[in-house]
Target: Sodium:proton antiporter
Amino acid sequence: MEIFFTILIMTLVVSLSGVVTRVLPFQVPLPLMQIAIGALLAWPTFGLHVEFDPELFLVLFIPPLLFADGWKTPTREFLEHGREIFGLALALVVVTVVGIGFLIYWAVPGIPLIPAFALAAVLSPTDAVALSGIVGEGRIPKKIMGILQGEALMNDASGLVALKFAVAVAMGTMVFTVGGATLEFFKVAIGGILAGFVVSWLYGRSLRFLSRWGGDEPATQIVLLFLLPFASYLIAEHIGVSGILAAVAAGMTITRSGVMRRAPLAMRLRANSTWAMLEFVFNGMVFLLLGLQLPGIMESSLVAAEADPNVEVWMLFTDVVLIYLALMLVRFGWLWTMKNFSVRFLKKKPMEFGSWTTRELLIASFAGVRGAITLAGVLSIPLLLPTGDVFPARYELVFLAAGVILFSLFVGVIMLPILLQHIDAGDSTQQHKEERIARAATAEVAIVAIQKMEERLAADAEENIDNQLLTEVSSRVIGNLRRRADGRNDVESSLQEENLERRFRLAALRSERAELYHLRATRQISNETLQKLLHDLDLLEALLIENQ
Model:
């Protein structure tokens, strides 16, 4: 029962945290609010203690969140910016592990070289979810955010693989070589991507099989969709490849495979609303759990530091600042290097970095905040070596990682709004152009389809439709579509007309819903009839709102 009540309390806190941020007289990013509430609940006064199992955390929260990120990631932009993404997600991770690892070994007393590399590895992944939470959706320019999202999807795997190598060497179960590590990384990465692709393909095949033999049952299909990221992750981990990349690949495959396009309307509507709810709850749980761990991490680390003659307690806090500044310097320096490399050597096909200003480079640097993967990774470091000795400086690694997470979020909250002032978050001109082209193309196809349907209905004696009525209705619909396809001014006029019609329809639907409740209250209809008609109205309203 204790676990049950803990889950209920955490879910309630996550749901209320959004309300708290809106009623406060000053603006606080939702992730920071959830971390603060978690830390407050874990304080001895309240005493909410949640045992943090890193392996369970990685399995329970990370696959669905990464799957959702992969699902929403624009595949075209991801492929177009492949060089930029892998330059940050692979090369920068290697530079960070080596450079920051040696810095930690040199600057932080009591941390040997291999554990220093482990800490640098676990600090290398960035968190796009935390970034969106602290600056808001759509605030960072699209050309930057697309690359940052792709980086966050990929560097989770590369950072955790580097951590795995460092821990294995420290435990004495592996002898590190550059060639061996490189081969192992590519095996883990490519294997994870293939595993996610295969599991997602099997999901699509199973949906078609179920639709053929059992009909389109949205509830069954949504449950299978919810299980897909977990299946991808667990199967990949079982065969020794990256479960994180498998979950990402499964999400991206769902987008490209047409599974959702062929799915029934009811399934798509319910899937979108279900995943939106799950993302909100899971993201909130991640930051709440981070806050719940902070008091315990601080207390145990400070007690261990006081008992360690080689460590000054106040130095732990200065080390957090030093490591964060070094991470930012390495990140900015790498972005600057890639920008200049692109300008000088890739003139025919330059990378996106080549056109970035210094301000945009700074935005991308401060946007590299750390989050849940870093915490889960550092807490997964074992307590003991195979010999029975304590893992070297583990308490320092945990304290420094947690400190860098918090410090990166606080600095991001301060610096990013300043850097983003007077910056257009998206290329609205290009987007409007694409929308006009797409609307015109779809309108032309729709007109042809209506004309063919009109001919078929007119020739079908069984339909028994009056020809004058048929012509009148089809002409009215085709007229609306032609106004959309004719040009920009007509498109805007058509959109205004459609928007006005949508508002009338929504007003009508809501009045119908109110009348249904009145009929039920006066016992003129049964509850079963009420629920059936409400469901129909909800679907119609969802379609109208979705197209706003």
